[in-house]
Amino acid sequence: MTLRGIPETNRLRRGAITLFVILVSGLPLATKSTYYLTIGNFIGLYAIVALGLALLIGYAGQVSMAQAAFFGIGAYASAILTTKYGFNPWLALIIGLPLGASIAGIIGIPLLKLEGHVLAVATLALSIVIYTFFVQLRPITGGYDGIGGIPRLSIGGFVLSSDLHYYYLIWTFVLIIFLLSSNIVNSRVGRALRSIHPFFGGSEIAAQSLGVSPAKYKVQIFMVSAIYASLSGSLYAHWMTFINPEPFGIFISILMLIMVTIGGMGSLWGAIIGACVIILVGELFRELVPRLVQGAAGEIEIIAYGLILVLILLFMPRGLVSAPALFKGWAAKTMGRVRRVSP
User: Fold this and answer.
1) Which one, 74, 78, 174, 290, has least CB within 10 Å?
2) Which domain range does residue 154 map to?
């Protein structure tokens, strides 16, 4: 079905993106609180990482628990290059992208030959190793003391000095990354990935017989996801102007994996939805739990993430993005029962 030559699916996609831009642009106008802007910034930063992880898991079929490490590589690249060597912040950010991609490519070639739980454990080990570097290389990274005085980004002569400035910058990058990822999904690479992923009814053996190289595409997407995470880390460093190893630990990698699982592993929109849900749930528990149980906020927050994940896997295995379709199916069944019972 078309309208003025535009396929219906394209019109729906454009309509969804337009609505998304309007909502994101209008949210700061609804509040002047820096607290809510901070939450919005964190959602945007994690959404960038989650989009790369959605490509890696949902399309390449590779589970990675090392995304926080690449997030940290981007942050430390920007911090070290600007504070110790006087690089322009934008140049430092750009250098961090191929750095993350190069590490992902070098490590990904042998690592992505593994499968399933073995791959997850291997990427978890990679995350631990890189986190250890952040902690132990004190002359370069500052160890637990971190690196301060990271300069803000600027556009021309305009310095991005407030949470509002970074809100619009971060979400501009979210939109760019979303469109880029959508193009990847709908390109030859995306079709090749779907041909090897069982989620889409694909088969590696069948794809290889048609000339598709699963190993090559898996490594490429791993590198793309590392670039996304590195970009997010650089934006984080220049926004916060201080970093230490804590935001790049194992728990953050697990949290990023939960985001994609909750939102929907085979959906780019699901990555953004998952980031929203996890950040908002975390903030909700930090606000409410200390009032009820002193000193147990962190533990209860972890339990809450686990319960949400279990419930989603049980009742919405395709993630929250599938909720409208499930509700539509439930409504259709309910109406069918009503018609059969009605005289």
Assistant:
1) 290
2) 33-341
